[in-house]
Amino acid sequence: MNAPPDEAAEWLRYAAEDLCTAQRMIEVKGIPIRQVCVLCQQSAEKHLKAVLIRLGQRVPRVHGLVELRALSGVELAGDLTDGVLEDVTRWSVAGRYPVDWPEPVREDVELALHVAERVAYAVQVWFTEQESA
Q1: Whole-model pTM?
Q2: What's the CATH code of the domain at 16?
Q3: Partner of 51 for a Cys bridge, out of 30, 72, 89, 114, CB 3.0 to 4.6 A?
Q4: Distances in Å between the alpha carbon of 130 and those of 42, 74, 87, 125?
């Protein structure tokens, strides 16, 4: 049984807000790029969870983009390998809590933004295909 479309739409709205905020914050001086990485990870996570909701699945309490991609069945661009998704997933913890990981550098935030944008696009395509099926 599929979830009401408005529930998935709410998740998509939150995901889009996270991505939009990250895109704007990336150029603001004084904003820790760690925060941009967190928003990018959250955007990708929420986009994939919106698919699960639309499919009527229970949303797991996980942050792992590899696992969420597998559960959703959404096809992502070839450059979004498990390793790349894991690199971005780490910001769900490393970006929010003091942990023993190095602070992100510009390449980290650029990768996180790339992943968030590509996941958003793939999920938009998925929803469009579902609506026309």
Answers
A1: 0.93
A2: 1.20.120.330
A3: 72
A4: 23, 12, 30, 9
Question: What's the structural domain count of the chain?
Answer: 1
Sequence-distant (≥ 6) Cβ neighbours of residue 55 within 8 angstroms: 2, 3, 72
**Residue 8 CB-density burial (10 A; 0-12 exposed, 13-18 middle, 19+ buried):** buried
List alpha helices for 2-105, DSSP H: 5-25, 33-54, 65-72, 82-89, 91-94
- Rounded to whole angstroms, how far apart are CA atoms 109 and 112? 5
pLDDT digits (tens, 9 = 90+) for 5-25: 599 999 999 999 999 999 999
Q: How far is CA 34 from CA 39, 66, 109, in A?
A: 9, 21, 8
Give the CA distances from residue 72 to residues 25, 57, 87, 95, 128, in Å, rounded to whole numbers and listed in that order.
29, 9, 19, 25, 15
The whole-number pLDDT of residue 105 equals 95
Contact status, residue 45 vs residue 68, Cβ threshold 8 Å: yes
Is residue 120 helix, strand or coil?
helix
End-to-end CA, the chain: 16
